From TrEMBL, chains A, B:
Record protein name field: LacI family DNA-binding transcriptional regulator
Annotated organism of origin: Geitlerinema calcuttense NRMC-F 0142
Keyword rRNA-binding: no
Molecular function terms from GO: DNA binding
Native organism taxonomy: Bacteria, Bacillati, Cyanobacteriota, Cyanophyceae, Geitlerinematales
InterPro entries: HTH_LacI, LacI/GalR-like_sensor, Lambda_DNA-bd_dom_sf, Peripla_BP_I
Matches recorded under Pfam families: LacI (PF00356), Peripla_BP_3 (PF13377)
HTH lacI-type domain sequence ranges: 1-55
Keywords recorded for this protein, A-Z: DNA-binding, Transcription, Transcription regulation
Annotated PROSITE patterns: HTH_LACI_2
Keyword Transcription regulation on entry: yes
Length: 339, 339
DNA sequence: CTGAAAGCGCTTACAG
DNA sequence: CTGAAAGCGCTTACAG
């Protein structure tokens, strides 16, 4: 920068002001040109660390998603969100720092704390789906502006409407005529979204006057293996089941395998509906009926919201569009009754 | 930091030295304790931006993967690698900065250049698979230590053995007795890996004395849709084909759908072999035979290698284990001859 | 073993 | 419209 100033025959202050597009103080067009040219010739690029030190701004946004035991559980959804966060950040000139804090002995890992206090972060997008612990609180303690994905207990969040999604799942199956339904869920005290999805299911049943006594529940753990096991269990113990309502697509894909292994045709013998509409869900055999939550829009929404929070505004949280995607794994139950 | 020094009744210099575990200068245990305690009580955490400014070290490692047009082409593999890079970084106290540079009018985007010159990066892991442009060169110009994934023209790389993988694909199919083989590849002038895979295929054929005149090739573009289209084309135009050898799993999954749509049974009527062993490839119907390249180990390997490069060492590049994973989409061709 | 002082590369009141 | 100077929070020769 000194070199630039010298070459343009101005002071370092002037160079700095022109290069940072200081809104105050106008400069003669001529000076500006001299500085800009000099910078270009020298190939000057600002040192962000120095700028960050003094301005308190780093132009770095953090995205954190907890690592739970060994399960990168919602990996695909996280990737989708991450991809779009990266695009949104880069369009706005921000860099993206990624971290996946874990819990060791019930405490957040030191590395995350260290990041929060590093001065590196202008803001944080927190993927905070787990009921049992929060990545948000420490961030708030450090005064870092934050926006949350996956949980609605924070003033600023971006989410799908999980309750509505669950309702759509149940409505679809019930309208098709299914009454004996296997529900593959997630443990109640794990994720916000899972709880809401199931609540939506139950509320629709009661609204439609359908008894949930012939709903049989078996929980999985996000993975397709657990979906396979749960489906196998349900279909074996409750042969009257004609449809499987599954809490996420990964487990639904497992359920699809279970049906195949048991020699059941989908959807003729058994209907299956998932939740998430992963990219791969259109490619299953047969293609999966599921719930879409426009995750491809979440990243942009989260970044935009975060930047407004930084500026002291109070943006309103967003519930993204949720809709039923009917493909080929659902149909009316066979009239013949039991399989 | 000043507060810590004051509280511990030492100079700022001393506090700094103790807190950074300066290898030189020993300190009386008592002083050290005083400083450490003071730091703990105050909840002192270093400002990394300042440290970075002076030391020239940021403790940030960058991972970049190019965004090619609108195709987040190897998205799943990238995620797998990214996940493990993140783990490896965090275990070593490094943070991870993510960027996905694009090309605008043939030039790398300004945002990437800005990142390179920001002083934020201690090193770079570059996912550089595309033959047509390189993210590596600009990094080297800025003198940033770098390690490459997906390309072996750089001194330091981590890769799978794509040539061997292609050879394994072909060998498997040929040993089963297939001679009329549809090859779904990628354009020759796109990716290093794709080219090598195909070369392995061809070399094995000639080594086994099998004519490749009954190999029919049709290229896709990574996506399952393109795999579906290519498979459909091949199976329609060359009904004598008994096996499909596909350059990646995403396209293989599309091929699986094509077979299904055409009423062909896999593997009885048509065998299919993919490449990558994506997490979802075990969950297809039927489960996909494919090539595994231990991608779950690449992240750790890349980070370890990068850190050694930073220290001025010259680590040897790594070619990761590549092996055939036989599942249920391949079998001997039907003896009856044509379908 | 410990401290005073300079300096990393930038920005920003404060003067003019 | 422009410059001299202080300072962001830390580290590191240089002395003692």
């Amino acid at each position: 920068m000194e070199d630039v100033a010298e070459k343009a025959q101005v002071s370092v202050s002037t160079a700095s002001r022109i290069l940072t597009r200081d809104r105050n103080g106008r400069f003669s067009d001529e000076t500006r040109q001299r500085v800009l040219n000099a910078a270009r010739e020298i190939g000057y690029r600002p040192n962000l660390a120095a700028r960050s030190l003094i301005s308190g701004q780093s132009n770095i946004i953090g995205f954190v998603s907890p690592r739970v035991v060994d399960t990168p559980f919602t990996a695909l959804r996280v990737l989708q969100i991450l991809t779009h966060i990266e695009i949104a950040c880069s369009e706005r000139g921000y860099h993206l720092l990624l971290s996946s804090p874990r819990y060791v002995n019930g405490a957040l890992d030191e590395h995350y704390m260290q990041l929060l206090s590093s001065g590196y972060l202008d803001g944080l997008i927190i993927h905070d789906e787990n009921v049992n612990f929060s990545l948000l609180e420490p961030a708030l303690e450090f005064g870092i502006p934050a926006v949350v994905i996956g949980n609605r207990e924070h003033p600023y969040f971006v989410n799908g409407d999980d309750y509505l999604g669950g309702a759509l799942q149940a409505e679809h199956l019930l309208q098709l005529g299914h009454r004996h339904i296997g529900v593959i869920g997630l443990p109640d005290n794990s994720h916000y979204a899972a709880r809401l999805r199931l609540r939506g299911v139950m509320d629709v049943a009661s609204r439609m006057g359908v008894s949930t006594e012939t709903f049989y529940r078996r929980d999985g753990d996000f993975t397709s293996e657990s979906g396979l096991a749960a489906a196998h269990y349900l279909l074996t113990h409750h042969p009257e089941i004609t449809a499987l309502l599954v809490n996420n697509d990964r487990m639904a894909i497992g359920a699809l395998q279970a049906a195949r292994q048991m020699g059941l045709r989908v959807p003729q013998d058994i209907s299956i509906i998932g939740f998430d509409n992963l990219p791969q869900s259109a490619d299953t055999t047969p293609p999966l009926t599921t719930i879409d939550q426009s995750v491809e829009l979440w990243g942009e929404a989260a970044v935009a919201m975060l930047l407004r929070v930084r500026q002291g505004e109070q943006p309103v949280s967003r519930m993204m569009d949720t809709r039923l995607v009917i493909r080929e794994t659902t149909s009316a139950p066979r009239t013949g009754g039991l399989r």
